[in-house]
Each structure stands twice: as structure tokens, then as C-alpha cells.
Amino acid sequence: MALVLKDRVKETTTTSGTGSITLLGAVQGYQGFSAIGEGNTTYYCIAGVAEWEVGIGTYSGGVLSRDTVLASSASGAKVGFSSGTKDVFCTYAADKSVTVDTLPVTTASNTDSPNNSVNVASLTAKVDTVSGDLALIPKGSGALLSRIPDGTSTGGDKRGLFAVDWQLSRSSSTQVASGLASSILSGSRNTSSGLYSAVAGGFTNTASGIYASVLGGTVNNATGSYSVTVGGQSNADLSSITHASIVGGYLNRVYGSYGVVVGGQSNNATVTGAVIVGGSNNAANGIYSFVSGGAYGTTRGITGMHIFPACNAPIAAATGVSQAGLLVLGVQTTSATPVVMRSNSSAAGLSNQLVLADNSAVYFRGTVIANVTGGGNTKSWTFDGQIKRGANAAATTLTGSTVASPYGDAGASTWTVALSADTTNGGLAVTVTGQASTTIRWVCRLETTEVSY
Fold it and tell me: Mean pLDDT over residues 192-202, rounded?
């Protein structure tokens, strides 16, 4: 029940010993302990001729229990009262009192305009220096919060240890800073449930990943560890990912660790390290791939592919219909065995060379540089061509190409670059042939102009 204090409450008792006392009725001019209310607690004082006790007791049916002793004539212990009549009255125990004048703060209220409709109460640091800090310090691992938790949407559920929760409005008891050392600085209906997570503000945002953050906006989610969503609406990093970032926009998604979407709408970075910078309906679905704005661009699952989509779907609002691309390939050879260049360290396949979409065509041009360390032999090539793909990978045809080597050392005369259609993977194979017992590093810059149906 509640702790209740009432003015001018005084009765007498003849109870002796250390147990609960039976009250004998109100003294003339006072009210009885029934004013405290059945089952409520209060501060009491029992005073005899030389014996006295101050404590917290519970009133029930004319009896006052002595639950907690705060001070007494028995050195703070329960007094074994002697026989005889004793006064029993409500008091304000010194051990529980607050004397405002002795605190290093001043309190005030303001009802003047513009505070006449919503008054303001203030707490100001009272220190000797010109400027003074004001610290609100929880005890131990307690939280710092603006509402008392009550399990409802008003006060919310219990906050996490060391949490900071200044949010004033919520629609559910779970919309609080419940994670260890989590924080909600402002806004409404936000949730910070991940360890060390934070929501700076906004509406209906959730930071549930470890070290995750949402800085604002609405209906944004930072679910992956170390992930960040910076404003916008209905943005989310999804699945069990880490270090994802969404910087504004609408309906953007990051599914891969270290992925980034910077603004735009309905963009999806679906794999590790994929990046989309603005635009609409773009898909960076190759590892460490990149889409630069525009609309309906796709990296087609190719590792490291850079795509530059048409600005606003001049042909059709469908993925990959009109775009340009840039892909850097590489390989190191130590023999004269032909090797297909790729954008990662795996053998050339579906995800690490120029692979076309079904029913598409690509004009390409590129440059290749090959070199032996220590200022050794070097050779370069330029090439361009046209390749198309029908309904499947087997229907891939290199319809024309030109390869030239404008520069090269005499010792690199046997080094070659060849182009062909890869009908297994449905793309362009850039094949290089080096020299026996010679370590050669090859790098290719491949640019594309793409159309598809």
C-alpha cells in the first residue's frame, strides 16, 4: 500500500513490549490513525516519559505495526516499552526529511507568459563559481529516466542497467531503453533494446542490435550489431549482420555486413560490403559492389561491380534495362597456362567476371596492364567488343571484338590477352597467358554499356 502522511494525527496506547501497539482513540483536537487509511504505512513516533521510538509502521484495524525503526531511545533498536500510557502520533522523520535550504540547488516555479498555460518548475545549481554543473546521479548501476516504470505505456517497463531514457511518450510498455547502457534521448514510441544501443529521437524507431543506433526519422530499425540508421522513414538493416549503415531515404534495406545505403528509395544492399548512393529501386547484390544513384540499377551478383544506372528509367521501370558499368579484374600467373581474369581470388565463375543477364546485350571496352616486379617486363592492351546473351547462359555470343597491344617490352612479346564468350556462366571471359617460370600480375579495367529486356 501507500506511504501516507496526515496532519494532526495523535492517539494514545498502553501497549508495552516490542510488538505492535493497540491504539486507544484520537486525542481531543486531533484525528485518529484511521485517517492514514487501512493497510497504508506512515511515519510514527511513540513517546513515553523517558522512552521514545520513531519509525515506519502500518495501520490496520486500530493497530499500528512497528515495521522499521529509524531512531529510538534504545540506540536505534526497538524499544521494549514499559507499562503506562504513551502518546502515538504522525511525524516527519528526520532521517527521511529533505531541507531545501541546505541543498546546493534552488527550486522555483514560473507561471508567467508563455508559461501561464503550462507552468514550469526549475532546479538550478547553487554553487560559488560563476558557472555550475548540475548532475543527476543514479545509485550504483541504476538508470537515469524521465518516467517511473510501471509496466504500462505511461511509465514503461524497467530500464536496463546504466540506461538513460528521456523519452516522455510511448504507446507500449516495451518502448523503453531496456538494453544494458542503452539510451533514448527524445522522441516518441522509440525502443532501444540492444546492449549499448541508442535512439536519438524520432518516432517509432528501434535499435535492437548491439551498439546499434538510430538517429531519427520514423519507423527505422537498426537490428545488426554496430549498425546505424540516420533518419528517413521505414529503413532497416535486416538479418544477423554487422556494421551496416542507412543514411536517410525511404524503404531502404541493408542485408549484408558492412553494407551502406545513402538515401534514395527502395534500394537494397544485400551482401557484404555492398553500397548504394541514392536513387530508387537499385540492387547492390554483389560482394563489395556499388550502385551510383539512378533508378533500377543492379550489379547482377558480381563481386566489385560498379553500376551507373540511367537517371530515371528512360526505357522501362525494370531492373538493369539501361545502365553502364565498371569492373576491375585481376590475376597473378606463374606459367604460360591461360587463365581467366576475375574480380576476387576464386576461379572465374558466375560472381566474379562480366556475366550478362538473360536477354541482354553489352558493348564493352577495356584496358589491361601486366607487369613483372622490380621494373621488369611490362605490356599493355586495349580492347572493345560486343557480346549478347539469349534466354540462358548457353545462348551467349561474342559478336565482335578487337584486341590491340600498343605498348610492351620485348621480353613480354609472348604475353597475350584473348576475349571469348563464356557459355557456362553466360558472360565475357578475359583470358591472359603469361610466361613459364615468371610471376606476372595482370589488372584489367572493364567498362560496359548495357541494355536488357
Answer: 98
Which helix (H) or strand (E) is 361 found in, with range?
strand 360-371
Chain position carrying cell 527524445: 186
Helices (H) and strands (E) in the chain, counts: 0, 36
Which H or E run contains 283? strand 283-284
List all residues 6 or more positions away from 215 whose beta carbon is below 8 Å from its beta carbon: 200, 201, 202, 228, 229, 230, 231
Question: Sign of the CA dihedral 423, 425, 426, 428?
Answer: negative
Pairing of strands 213-214, 228-229: parallel
> What's the pLDDT at 444?
98
Confirm if 284 and 275 have CB atoms less than 8 A apart: yes
Alpha-carbon distance of 119 to 128, in angstroms, equals: 29
Contact 223, 237 (CB under 8 A): yes
If we measure between CA atoms, which residue out of 213, 168, 234 comes closest to residue 176? 168
Residue 193's alpha-carbon distances to 138, 199, 225, 230, 234, in angstroms, are 20, 10, 12, 18, 18
SS3 string, 82-126, reads: CCCCEEEEECCCHHHCCCHHHCCEEEEEECCCCCCCCCEEEEEEC
Per-residue pLDDT tens over the stretch 125-170: 989 999 999 999 999 999 999 999 999 999 999 999 999 999 999 9
pLDDT at 1: 74
Residue of 300, 420, 291, 308 whose CA lies nearest to 358: 300
Are β-strands 63-64 and 21-22 bridged in parallel, bridged antiparallel, or unpaired?
antiparallel
Phi-psi region of 345 (alpha: psi -120 to 50; beta: other; left: phi over 0): alpha
Residue spans of beta strands (DSSP E) within 372-439: 378-389, 396-408, 416-422, 427-433
**Structure confidence by residue, pLDDT tens digits, 270-293:** 999 999 999 999 999 999 999 999
Q: How far apart are CA 403 and CA 258, in angstroms?
A: 38
